[in-house]
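yo

u said u wanted the structure for the complex thing, so here. seqs first:
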Amino acid sequence: MTTVATKTSTAPELSRARSTSAWLHRHPSARLLGLLSLPGLWLVVAYLGSLAVMLIAAFWATNDFTGAVEHRTTLDNFRALVTQPVYRRVALRSLGVAALVTLVDTLIALPMAYYMAKVASPRVRRLLVVAVLTPLWASYLVKAYAWRVMFAKGGVVDWLLSPVGGHGPGFGLRATVITLSYLWLPFMVLPVFAGLERIPDALLEASADQGARPLRTFRSVVLPLLFPALLAGSIFTFSLSLGDYITVKIVGGASQLASNVIYDNITTGGNLPFASAAAFFPIIVMVGYLLAVRRAGALDDL
Amino acid sequence: MPSTAGRRLLVATMAVGLLVIYLPLAVVLVNSFNSSRTFSWPPRHFTTHWWSQAWGSAGARSALRVSIEAGLGATAIALVLGTMAAFAVSRYRWFGRDGVSLLLLLPIALPGIVTGIALNNAFRLVGVPFGLLTIIVGHSTFCIVLVYNNALARLRRMGSSLEEASADLGAGIWQTFRYVTFPMLRSALFAGGLLAFALSFDEIIVTTFTSAPGVQTLPLWIFANLFRPNQGPVVNVVAAVLVLLSIVPVWLAQRVSGEPVGARR
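structre next:
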């Protein structure tokens, strides 16, 4: 193999490459510095730098008449967010939607993952894993759009429910919760499936031998062991729901969630300081959630 | 093992679950052949008119090109930076090493809108004109972690003994990388790159804040045309194409690794 390498390079080029190589070989710290230079510049300087500037901007003011940003420190943005009831309602609604989506996904993912991990044969199991995962690759926007088609007046949902005299929920918060649950379901099925696969069948048999009925085994043996996996899945369902403003625009009718407040203040309002202050809400909730989950030991399950 | 009744219930849940997962995607496919402009169900007449109209849509075509360019650019940057970071973490001990994973995960863990407005604001401050370049920068920021995770897992699993053997036999560090490390790393980089491209191709939130008015990616184009009734049929076709295209990475990943895709994200 090495002969191929020496043939393709010309002599001066080769010697230069060799001397750099030898020098780098003698200086491991230079190698490390070289490896860290670009990723470090990109993520620490560019990314963390932009984040820091944005967070600082939350304490800036905007001129009431011109809308121009004024670089003086103030807590007005946060005061407005906390005291005005409309923002409190939007914040609570966002938390409610994120929690509800997490609950719905948990209730659907548990039986599906249980069937995949503990009932289906290995062949079927492989097929099912692929079947559940494949839609992950389909565009997020297309899936949200698909539900807009489903929920449209006279659309598929209305048509399906018409024989029993019902009709779909139409565009609104209910449609938003259903669509978000649909979008993030694989993110819950996957960790729960992995968690169930790790539970030895012997434990379930032992529980049955002791006279526990299946539901009792599920509640007293499976659920406690599965808890970290459920938390790991909930990180995705919860955080992705909390940060979403596209789905609610597509199927939510006139409903607003926390991220819409941020979005509208940037795009139509051009009010960066206020939007930055509003962005503190999802950041604080998510960091708090991650810390709580880490205490329960679920971060290792990701 | 659950009882017979319980087992039936599980089978039924699984079947209904899969049905609900695929029904909306199927509806999108069927609707692209629906002659009516409304979403009313069931469709009455079949037509391929919208497909030919979409084929000629200049907006959709240029958006597709921008998406591919942005995806390739972001994937290339993510491959280089993610591999470098993975080497630094797996092969060296240094202060701050434990923080790297968290730092790389941050752009994905935080809501996209936070990353989006942070970058938007920074580009404005520095004076970078918005366009394809800023989209690529934004996308690479959250794509790095996907390559990093795959490369790191592989580097840890293969250990450094082969690299040391190569050095002992007189190979320089470039030769060792080219003939020993890289071939073993290749499939992991492919998987990471595939995930990175897919994520970039699908991204809309960060893109919203890093693109210029004339430069639209496919998701941005769909979102802009979603609420225009006369563009509806063309959006249907583009959506149907994207649903069909989603099989490609699944197939590729199956062929390369033989593992179910997305198993590590």
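Confidence is low (pLDDT under 50) at residues 260-265 of chain B. Chain B touches chain A through 89 residues (CB under 8 Å).
cya
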